[in-house]
Amino acid sequence: MYIELKDVSKKIKGIEVLKNLNCRFESGKVYGLKGKNGSGKTMLMRAVCGLIKTSGKIDINGEILGKTISFPRSVGILIENPAFIAGYTGKKNLQVLASIQKRISDEGIVKTLKAVGLDPEDKRTYRKYSLGMKQRLGIAAGVMENPDIVILDEPINALDESGALQVREILKEQKDRGAIVILACHDTEELEFLSDEIINISDGEITGIVAVDKNKIKE
Fold this sequence. Notes:
- It is a single chain.
- The protein is of the alpha/beta class and 219 residues long.
- It is 31% helix and 29% strand.
- It has helices at residues 41-49, 90-101, 106-115, 131-143, 161-176, 188-194; strands at residues 2-12, 15-26, 29-34, 55-60, 63-64, 75-78, 149-153, 180-184, 197-202, 205-211.
- Strands 6-7-8-3-9-10 form a six-stranded mixed sheet, sandwiched between helices.
- Helix 3 packs across helix 4.
- The longest helix has 16 residues, at 161-176.
């Protein structure tokens, strides 16, 4: 499994927000996007998900996004604020999502909720969730069906230390089963810990791709 970007660009209201991006993502690796706010990280994620149209070519395992396919065939996404049904519990929200493609059982949903630190039997509705709980549910929705591609924008946002540790374990599991994981995180130290490669982005351009030396990172 791979994703390859070839001369990918995007203009919004005449402003070029992505500029001739060329990079490749492969199965079983975690790729960290590093850059300031507005650098193009989220826009790159949206492009790979098929949420925006771009020029150039995005090749996903031999299929061209926007031509042979409209969206990746198997993708889990958490970009910006997760959106759920306010009057449903976390479990019910995931059951609704799961009913679309029917790729996960109720038992799998329960297991995923526990993995992100949420109680599957919690009767509180989403509107009563704290920011951290909402983030945990968003991560659960992104990974619960074990997609080929996992895209997470600021996955540790609003999480406490235990939540961050759970995200680490979840990402390791996704990587180990062969998913392509693409994430952005403002915490540089955490980003380096989580990632196999760091893609530096500035003003919509890739300015460098660096392999992370895990031997130099302390847990």
